[in-house]
Write a structure and sequence with these properties.
The chain is of the alpha+beta class and about 110 residues long. It contains 2 helices and 3 strands. The protein has one domain. It starts with 6 loop residues before the first strand and ends in a 12-residue tail after the last helix.
């Protein structure tokens, strides 16, 4: 497969059992986005599911949720869009960010 075959970004969702949740929460979830080199959307989904099951074999539970995004740039470069998800919501901007992206339960560093 040449570099001119399509790339896809695949987001899979996992639940971790080997780490302790923070903030009094019960579970730890991970949204994991990987690049897939594939000939079609169906091929990308199949390859992403294989990779997700391999990743889950290390003690992480694959929740069998996958969302695949076709990358339109043939050559990846600085600023290439690697994933996009558009969602309708009644939430105001600050509420939206707090609900979906900054609930206080994230296991990551923050830049403010």
């Amino acid at each position: 497969m040449s570099n001119h075959e399509p790339f896809y970004a695949a987001k899979c969702v996992f639940r971790h059992h080997q780490h302790e949740p923070i903030g009094g929460k019960k579970y730890i979830y991970e949204d994991r986005i990987i690049l897939i080199h594939a000939q079609s959307m169906e091929d990308a989904i199949e390859k992403a599911e294989v990779e997700a099951n391999e990743y889950a074999a290390s003690g992480t539970e694959y929740l069998e949720y996958i969302n695949v995004f076709h990358l339109f740039d043939y050559i990846l470069h600085h600023g290439s869009e690697v994933y996009s998800e558009i969602r309708s919501s009644n939430l105001e901007p600050e509420e939206y960010i707090d609900h979906f992206h900054d609930s206080g339960s994230e296991h990551c560093g923050k830049y403010t």
